[in-house]
Amino acid sequence: MDKRDALIRLSGLKAGGDRSPPDLEVRGLSLAYPDNENALREISLAIPAGKITSVIGPSGCGKSTLLRCFNRMNDLIEGAEYTGSILLEGQNILARDTDVTLLRRRIGMVFQRPNPFPKSIYENVAYGPRIGGIRRKRQLDAIVEHSLRSAALWDEVADRLYESALTLSLGQQQRLVIARTIAIEPEILLLDEPASSLDPISTLRIEELIYELKHSYTIIIVTHNMQQAARVSDMTAFMHLGRLVEFDRTDTIFTNPSRRETEDYITGRYG
Ligand SMILES: Nc1ncnc2c1ncn2[C@@H]1O[C@H](COP(=O)(O)OP(=O)(O)OP(=O)(O)O)[C@@H](O)[C@H]1O
Predict the structure, then answer these.
(1) Distance 150 CA to ligand 1 centre (A)
(2) Which CATH number fits domain 3-14+22-266: 3.40.50.11810, 3.40.50.920, 3.20.20.450, 3.40.50.300?
(3) Residue 10: is its pLDDT beyond 70?
(4) Can you tell me where the transmembrane regions are (predicted)?
(5) Most exposed among 27, 52, 120, 142, judged by the fewest C-beta atoms under 10 Å?
């Protein structure tokens, strides 16, 4: 089995199948936590495939909660209850019988703070493919190199692959986490404020990387940083108090929003 076959097998794609990102559509999604009945209220939106969608809005409006619905991370929160559906290629991923492990392979997530494993740089990236059944060193080497290159980190770490990931700078760690996510070939990437703990230069590198990655993935990014949303995304969703207020092309949201609440937020009148 060559590397591509291995990746295809891991991602559940058909052999020789295309890598065009799948459609993702949210329909009437509501979510309640025990102490917040309206964390999400009747959200509906179609995430365009192969594009970057930003989710913006004031603190506590439900951005991260929405993001976590896409790979069922809210299942891990006791008492979180949701209704509605999210269709991935027409199949409701919120259905009880969804294989959540496979789903999380198809929809990878990167969190706010880099969370590499306390292992070598190589092991961080090889871990997922190995769990997925790839054992041959040559194949793993190829996946590690490809993933690190895709995450724009290879040149900085090629000669120190067996050093601890914790010796990397925070910005490098976040790119490593992105490489680790890419290594299992997801189709969709969820990024929850991926640059918020980074310095401006590392932030710029992550933004450039996100922009590059959109050629291969559908990306949904939660950000507090409106300039970042304006710079990197094709589409922007503005949320407030658990509702989706407006969803449109990013340039429209930032230059000619149709809702007063959106305008107030992007012009800094609140939030
Ligand atoms: N694990 C949880 N348990 C209970 N309530 C939660 C949990 N996570 C979030 N909430 C609540 O749900 C609402 C939405 O939170 P969420 O974190 O999704 O908002 P956010 O827009 O991402 O906020 P921020 O920008 O501050 O990260 C808030 O009222 C929050 O207190």
Answers:
(1) 31
(2) 3.40.50.300
(3) no
(4) none
(5) 27
